[in-house]
Amino acid sequence: MKLTRRINVILLPVIAGVFIITTEILNTTMEDQARLVYEQQLEQTLTNSLYRINYETNLADSIFSQMVNSHEYANYIVDPSVHVLYDALDSLLNKQREQVRSFMPGLVSLQIINADGDILFSADERELFTEPKLPLIPKQQQRWLDKPTHNLASKGSFLFTNEEGQVHLARLHTFSSEFLSTGSRRHKDENKVSYFLIIINMDFIRLGTPALQEEFANHYHINLNINNNLDQSNITPTITLGKSKRIVSANLIHPLFEKEVTISDKFIDQQLKEQKNNQWFLTIALILFSYSSLLSLIHRQIINPVLKLTNQVRSGKKSTLETQQGNDEVAELNNAYAKLLVEVENLAQYDSLTNLANRASFKNSFARALTRSLYQEEPLAILYIDLDNFKQVNDHYGHDVGDQLLIEFSDRLLESIRSTDACSRVPQESAVARLAGDEFAVVLANSTPDTAAIVANRILELFKGGFTVGKQKHNVKASIGIAIAPDDGVEVSELMRHADAAMYQAKSAGRNCYQFFTKKIADAMKEKIDIEDELIYSLENEQFYLMFMPIYNSESLTIESLEVLLRSSNPMLNKCGPEKFIPVAESTGLIKKIDLWVIDQALRKLKEFNNTINYQKTFSINMSSVELHNKDFPKKVAKLIKKYNVDPKQIDLEVTETSLVAYDKNSIQVLNDLKALGVSLSLDDFGTGYTAFNQLIHYPVDHLKIDRSFVAALSNQDDKDQSMLEIIVSISRIYGLKTVAEGVETQQQLDYLIQLGCDYLQGYYLSKPLSEADLLSLLNKQNQPRFCDL
Known about the structure:
Radius of gyration: 65 Å
Structural class: alpha/beta
Strand content: 15-25%
């Protein structure tokens, strides 16, 4: 998943989650706060109700005081039979009621009741000519039924519900005439007890105050329980709020009743709905704003710089990024990438060891210079340089020393190439390059063969006196091949290939020299390409076959071994012979397939000879020097030995001395691995590779095959050549090695070699390479056991 998508997937949920949780917390807090406010409103409503109850109770007591202290009441008590006095008191009551109702509209009635519970006076709203009625007074509140208390002066309140279901407050005063002042009494009479009953409409206790109704409409509920405690003095009115956070309620405990007011959740939800909707709308807006702002910031500060880096990587173009200031991660990434890109570009264009242009950079510069040169019809030269004997430096002194030598040579080479030599329109560092290993190249602009030769000689002069690395002097030389455009080619690859071929021609000419590309080299190159094509064709179409060259015992002149030789029925390969097509096979890598084919066919034939003619001698099979660097070669040989189930002692593998000129641990290891299989090893063409005799101890070989050039020289009666042969044979005996003399072509050579004590002989004088049929015939002539036809 890309970074932008990951940010989109992660960022929006995180921001939304944070804001949603915050909004939920705010909504919960807002809801709790609203509930607290509503509870406080309920508390205030109940407080106001309690105040109103107390206020109107006090007014009722004030009315009572005014009544009992009035002359009308006193006169009536003295002589209740006088109608004038009755009417005066009745008028006073009604007048008092009307006055009080102006500021206490809930006043229902004022009544005076005698000791028997009969109504004496009643100021109320009854219709005319109707008898007054006592309200539905609870029995426990009808004090006149309790005779013993008639002499007591007391007051009390109680609630009751009238016929219409309304809640009324009754204030009942008990009064005895003995409490009248002395001046008010006209004569001594028995005490008379009266009851003053004041009825006040308190239905707001049941329905709620107007303020409550206005605030909460129909969304509240009142639970009223009238208890009318007789012992009202010991109960103090208290107000408590609801104990649950989810329920808004308030409780009023009064001596006369208990009341609980509850606000419905629906009302609270409705009241908060708009606020919550606004809050959620604001939350969504903040989420979108925060997301877009952060996303824009992230894109500007992170994504865009990263994408810029990504596009730079994908485009592969030279970086245009500038170093950014700051310690943030993106700046560090940008700077690290810019630095890395510079390093990568340097690695892509320059050799890391010598700082010269590498092959790719050189070819690009060479192509531009060649295009310009062809357009301006100017010659252009390329010098292909290869260091001679450099491999020995690596093998004997290590790669560190070899690297130092390459650096030293590169520095000298750059100093020797003058600005007038190198392409004036190509940077000098691109005109001189290290192509690979110990191979270098130089491009010369507007260069004729003469000027190219001057530069080549100047380069060869660099090797005079050798190169000193540390305290060791190394006499390394160089071979240089030169190709000139447009005569030798008009393509970069063509010119480089031709210069390379000329360089190999210089090596063949003795090294430490230069060679121009010529038609002869071109013909040789064409021939090599043709040979390579025919080798591939011959492998695919089975156009190879084996010949056998007998090797004789010098004492008995009987066949001791058979050297297996490769031949081809392909017309071109047959014409040029193994001496030409084998080197081509080695240079192209085809030799590995050919080697395995030869060994496979030779072992198959050896097994056949063992089974048919009871052949007990050895097969001597040539192996390419290329196999000395092939660690898998011994395993493949072992696999073939096992495949044909032949005795390894019957196998002798030949390798040329020239492939072992320098002591190479890897090559020696391959030879040791082959030796461990049980086969014998021969060092072919001995004497041509300048192997020091003391090096023989390192080679796990069994035979030395003396090169035919030493045998051929015996015909010249040269004492030096005879001495050389004597030395080789003597040294071989010291090291316990058998000697094989190649190229025996005269009786004189044969006699001398036998006399010298050479162990085995081989040459045309004894036998030419034979086909299988001729070989079988020869074996028959030498009294070999007969065998069935193949």
